[in-house]
Amino acid sequence: MPNPQVLIVGAGPVGLTLAAELVRYGVAVRIVEKAAQRTDKSKALILWSRTLELLDRAGCTETFVAAGHRIEAANITAGNKRIGHIRFDALDSPYPYALSLPQSETERLLEAHLARLGLAPEREVELTDFTERDNGVQATLRHRDGRDEQVEADWLVGCDGAHSTVRHKLGLSFLGSTMQSDWLLADTHVAGTDFPDSEIATYWHEDGVLAVFPITPGRYRIVADIGASVGPSPADPTLDQVQAIVDRRGPGGLTVSDPVWLAGFRINERKVADYRTRRSFLAGDAAHIHSPAGGQGMNTGMQDAFNLAWKLALVCRGTCSDGALLDSYSIERSAVGERVLKAAGRLTSVAVLKNHAAQTVRNLVGGLVLGLAPVRRAMSDTMSELSIAYDESPLNGPGARGLDGPAPGERARPVAGQTPIGAGDAPRFALCAAATEAAQHVLQAHPHLLEPSLRAPLGEGGMWLVRPDGYTALAVKDGEYRAVTDYLDALR
Predict the structure, then answer these.
(1) Distance between CA atoms of 312 and 37, rounded to whole angstroms?
(2) Domains: count for the chain
């Protein structure tokens, strides 16, 4: 088997996403996974709007939407009073909802997408060791029969989860802590009068929090904290324990039955400082893990993969040099990981307050704050990850003041009916500018970095350069083509 340009370790949602993006862009890839088969558990449950937008660049979002269940809102209830109702239907996206889809299905669909591109993960193949060199990585892969294989690759990416072998071999510290409380998770059927199947329901109770996520009509994910940690690891709950907590903390009249999965867990909040070490990268849970509050974990990891893929592809194809382009991956995604970790931690801390006086204040302030429409909009944008931006990215070019459109580092909203930026068989920037002879000259001067056709400006009086992942690279006044040329020349 020929040596790959990129060796990916781990074939969960993050590794499969990265592999599919790289193969789509013509990069030689091997993806290995020590597990014998895909997960059969629901695990990470939500695909948010921004992830669906990024999947759309590969033309496969429709298959996910068809397989999933749309969630239109999230409710927070304290006592018998609903104190927050956050709707998703006003999200500024072609996908104004949360898509409930068990991780087992997400992996199945990603693997099918990858197969259509001509690649399959190599299962029961484990990375046991690797050495970084100036021009690549030498890795040892152990096969099911015990045979060791030596592989040379230009780049190595660890998408191998919270117990990442790649991270351990690199000697990177996974800084953070484990919350000293036990939690239960139940993927089960729920019956009850008028219980919504298109809304996330969170109950702030004096005993703790209860969260209920629709999976499909009649089937739900139940999550609850159950007290201080006892023993080396939490025990899996019984269905009777789940029913008792739902009776105590929920709206009443709900019956749980026919469990698909029951598990106990503890919340870890950890992150590496740097997602890159010379020729190796980390993505997903290998780089960051946090509270499941908000359902951000898998989405953040998949978006790590989308961010890294176009940059690696440009380098592997010889279009751009390494340098700042690949370094920007860690800078951009580490900042996002830090924000997600802190936000999820805050949500969890607020939800599990035990002091009665603190709970009273929380419920009062929560009701007042969540009664404000701007706050609800900000929360929906954060949950959907549409608000993610790379404000401090070294890839941000100039931004002219006063332009009515996205600033450098901000998301450029996908336009309905248009081919998404970043689609196709090569990672190219889009020039959004008025059709002039000068603009055409810029396109012709950079055929390997720019889409062959102009796109409409994103506002009045300006021109925008948009990255292959749909984030704005620069925003200048109409006709300032030198800024575009200088930016693209610097990448090469």
Answers:
(1) 28
(2) 3
